[in-house]
Amino acid sequence: xxxxxxxxxxWRQEGPEDRGAFETHVVExxxxxxxxLELLDRLNDQLAEQGIEPIAxxxxxxxxxxxxxxxxxxxRPHGPVPNTPSCRQHLRAFGNISRLRIExxxxxxxxxxxxxxxxxxxxDRVIEAGGTVDVAAGTAPDADDxxxxxxxxxxxxxxxxxxxxxxxxxxxxxxxxxxxAGAKLAHLALIPHGKMQRGERGHxxxxxxxxxxxxxxxxxxxxxxxxxGIPLEAVAAVHREGLRGLFRxxxx
Length: 252
Prior knowledge:
Number of helices: 8
Oligomer: single chain
CATH architecture of the largest domain: Orthogonal Bundle
Strand content: 5-15%
Structural class: alpha+beta
CATH class of the largest domain: Mainly Alpha
CATH topology of the largest domain: Fumarate Reductase Iron-sulfur Protein, Chain B, domain 2
Radius of gyration: 20 Å
Largest sheet: 5 strands, mixed
């Protein structure tokens, strides 16, 4: 198996109040098959052997599903491969690379907790504001109680694929989260389960976006980094659903 030498310029920050700075380390035995997270694992092995505090970073499933692993690689959220999460970015896709710069997802809405770990609870607050539906508890309903057309169901599932990784926010020059919020609003607008809260949901989500994130100017950088391939049409859902609630009533 071929090995490669990779020099890593990596962000270190002890806590939210610390200024932080880049450190440079070298992994001599990296392989093209390694993912970015496996490269960080190998680096942490080296640091631990040297008695140095390992790099703090997030990961969970490492299968491109959970959205926890986001970092910025050479100024691009997740890495150089479009629409691919950090855990699925492999060194073989980077070409003849010998140096990487790895830092947290950068946004005013994502304060750094430690090293590469950021606080993305601003996105949770958007979901708390309007990303839920009321469902009557009790026995399981029959499969045909709520009918959803095939085309609507397929489109709703496409929007529901958003994993909430935050790369869209980090990629946006304004730090907007409209792709994320629009995916949720578009998803819930297409299914009958959330119909009763539709107007209230659009109004609440739009208010939360204004409070937590920057304005969207439809630059489109968000679309190129989104691992779920959420289309730019999701952005239109934010104001469409917000205006719908304003003109038709929050309970409609």
